[in-house]
Each structure stands twice: as structure tokens, then as C-alpha cells.
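C-alpha cells incoming
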């Protein structure tokens, strides 16, 4: 479970990407007042996320640096479903998860699968997008250049593919 987010936290939303939590406001509508997080998105714009639903929507603090990601990628993999449709559902669930390591574990598990099975186009697309996301998070957490973070992640992925 996420701790309560604080103004200034770097955050990630699975649909809208990275941002900074700018404020927390209360809105009065037709029902009881509701609290919202205001997230300034890295790609531009502001996202309002109901505080009560933030975790279920996948909003979470950015916490994974390069070392954490690489350690997870090197950990013991879990099997993914053999059924393509079930695997897509599983990987989508990990993408949407508010658990910080869910996507990294998905990359690890998909790489392990690739050693024994050919990846489908959907698997490959998910893997590329996940590596981009991991690089973006690591760059923010470690305060390093995005290209450098992506390079480290992709080098580790290439190393793991060959083992």
C-alpha cells in the first residue's frame, strides 16, 4: 500500500506518465467533499486524481533507481502464462499496478520466458515500453540523464536475454 503522497513527490500514473504532485485540494460537489491530488505531468498539463482512488488507479511515488531495478531484474523469475491472451492480461495488470516493482518484475519474467519461447509482438511491445518506463523512473530517482538510465537498463536486459 502506498503511503500518503506529499506535495513535491515525483509520481507515476500508468496512463499519463510521470509528474510532480503539485497540490492536494478538496472539492465540494453534489455529494460529500472529495480530496484530489493535482499532478503536473512531465508531458504537460495537470491531472486530477481522487485521493481515495489514487492507489487503485495506479498512481504511486517514483522510487526505483538503477540499482533497485537491476537487482530485481537479476532476481528469480516467476513463470508467466503460456496462453497469449492470459499473458497480455497479466502484463497489463502489472503495468497498471501501484506496486513499485510490478513492471520490473514483468520485465524480468518476460526475459526469462524469452529464453525458452519466442516472444509475441505484444510481448515485445510491452517489453520495449516497460524498459522505457524503467529508464524514466531511474533517471528521476537517481537524478541522472535519461539516455544514461535507458542505456544501463537496456544493457542489463541484453545481458539477461543471452543467459
Amino acid at each position: 500500500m502506498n503511503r500518503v503522497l506529499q506535495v513535491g513527490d515525483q509520481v507515476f500514473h500508468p496512463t499519463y506518465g510521470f509528474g510532480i504532485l503539485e497540490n492536494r485540494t478538496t472539492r465540494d460537489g453534489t455529494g460529500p467533499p472529495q480530496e484530489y491530488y493535482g499532478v503536473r505531468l512531465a508531458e504537460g498539463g495537470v491531472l486530477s486524481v481522487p485521493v481515495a482512488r489514487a492507489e487503485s488507479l495506479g498512481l504511486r511515488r517514483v522510487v526505483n533507481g538503477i540499482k533497485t531495478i537491476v537487482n530485481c531484474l537479476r532476481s528469480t523469475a516467476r513463470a508467466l502464462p503460456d496462453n497469449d491472451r492470459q499473458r497480455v492480461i497479466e502484463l497489463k495488470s502489472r503495468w497498471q499496478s501501484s506496486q513499485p516493482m510490478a513492471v520490473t518484475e514483468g520485465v524480468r519474467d518476460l526475459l526469462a520466458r524469452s529464453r525458452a519461447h519466442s516472444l509475441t509482438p505484444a510481448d515485445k511491445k510491452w517489453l520495449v515500453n516497460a524498459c522505457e518506463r524503467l529508464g524514466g523512473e531511474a533517471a528521476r530517482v537517481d537524478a541522472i540523464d535519461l539516455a544514461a538510465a535507458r542505456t544501463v537498463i537496456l544493457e542489463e536486459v541484453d545481458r539477461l536475454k543471452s543467459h
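note: The chain is about 45% helix and 20% strand.
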